[in-house]
Write a structure and sequence with these properties.
DUF4258, YaeB-like fold, 6-stranded mixed β-sheet, 3 helices, alpha+beta
Length: 90
């Protein structure tokens, strides 16, 4: 696994949502869905762990920078972004 760094925003989001760095790394490594956000250019990794965990990150050479992390309860929220073209699966 590449080196994983976290923005201040990501750290705050993880604290607020009780998501550990290990959960984030696991979601990136074992993502059930990967996409690119067409609006921001960020990469998206999604893994179901009870709720759907969404990891937004960037790649810089051999390292990753996690931008934010959040959970959604309905898969429809993810499917809507894919269907509307906001996210494109990779």
């Amino acid at each position: 696994m590449a080196e994983v760094n976290f923005t201040e925003h990501a750290i705050e989001a993880m604290k607020k949502r009780n998501i550990t760095p290990e959960e984030v790394i696991d979601a990136i490594e074992k993502a059930e869905l990967r996409a690119v956000d067409t609006l921001t250019g960020h990469f998206i990794a999604i893994k179901k762990n009870g709720k759907w965990t969404v990891i937004v990150y960037d790649v810089y050479g051999q390292s990753l920078e996690v931008v934010t992390v959040y959970k959604v309860s309905r898969k429809a929220q993810i499917e809507n972004r894919l269907r509307r073209g906001r996210w494109v699966g990779i």
